[in-house]
Amino acid sequence: MQKPPERTAVIGWGSINPLGKDAESTWNAVLAERSGIQSLNDAWAADLTTQIAGRVHEQALSTLEPLLQRRSDRCAQLAVLAARQAWSMAAPFRVGIDPNRIAVVIGTGIGGLATMHAQHEQLTAGGPTRVNPLTVPMLIPDAPAGQVAIDLGLNGGAHTPVSACASGAEALMLAQMLLNDDRADLVLAGGAEAPVNRLGLVGFSAMRALSCRNDAPKQASRPYGQDRDGFVLSEGAGVLALMRNPDVPADAPLGWLLACGSSSDAHHIVAPEPEGRQASRAIEDALRRADVQPCDITAVQAHATGTSLGDLAEARALRRSLGSAADQIPVCAPKGQLGHLLGGAGAVEAIIAFQSMRVGITPRSLNAEPLDSEVELAVSQSGPVTMATSNRERLLLKNAFGFGGHNISLVLAAPAGRNPAQHD
Fold this sequence. Notes:
Blueprint (H helix, E strand, L loop, with lengths): L7 E9 L6 H9 L5 E3 L12 E3 L3 H4 L4 H6 L2 H16 L1 H4 L7 E6 L5 H14 L8 H5 L3 H10 L5 E2 L7 H14 L5 E8 L4 H9 L29 E9 L10 E10 L12 H14 L8 E3 L6 H15 L7 E3 L2 H4 L6 H15 L1 E2 L15 E2 L5 E2 L6 E10 L3 E10 L9
Parallel strand pairs: 4-5, 4-6, 9-10, 9-14, 10-12
Antiparallel strand pairs: 1-7, 1-8, 2-3, 6-7, 8-15, 11-13, 14-15
Helix pairs in contact: 1-14, 4-8, 9-14, 11-12
């Protein structure tokens, strides 16, 4: 018999991405409808087909200790910065918790891609003696989780789901499992990615997955838009601090992770199943586990990357699973502003989802207008949409899908007591 998941409380978060150095600055940028996409003026990008991306400002990484900068890939550095923010925010609630009961779950789609590329260049140019002896521990996908555990002195397990672009969302699912199974009392969970380098851009360009709007970077990421031509590669990290709801004061949670649904397409190594049938299974699995109906959902935060096939598959899945309720539920596609953070996307976007619920605003989906005529959803293309406030809390469905057919859906909740005019 299926056991209902126990509501998981969010007690802190941290985010670093192309829109902001932390969660607050990111949310302010979302409200201001700013774009984090920029032109790449680096010499290494001069001959590339795609010369745009979302990048974290270098000043945001300057606070890291020099030794950590030398001994870790950019992906792990971003994870540590986001985790420190979440850890600090959770400080009032973690007093007295044994470090042996605090776990880390940091997902990533690729891991240390920049290290892999740089050290291969060193090997080619100078031979074996030029390769950094820390190459392997810097490039392996579990390095971000390990570095976070080392940095904060946490001994409750360091885990790394690697599920392409669903990795950050799957980390939240694993965190809920760890808490429900009493394997931890607090979990730092999220995702990190740093793919904006020559190898990353060449690899995705060769697949024809990236937008080539080099002359209009801020308009390039166009999820659900009629004239979309691919996603825009971005970097960043998001980490949430999670505890069992009964273990924190009633007024403490920033929001709750109610339930997680999952499925796999078993269809293609890259392309989604075009009708979104298995994506629907993940959505319905999450709704069922959360014991909510489609009409209970206040908003949807879509995965929507801006690829032709992926956006339509998700739109069909949402329409199938939500039925007639999809006519009224506002849908936000945050990658129009953020670009695609791959394994970091699910966590960074989940934080934005909680912030949006807390103030009762579904942000505008930048560049979604004009909407693809085949997308039969209430996408917030023209401007922000005020969320319904009939219940004590707002519920949001969040999707994350990855290459290879990885499907994750989350049902998130937050208090509905805030005035939409109070943008925080």
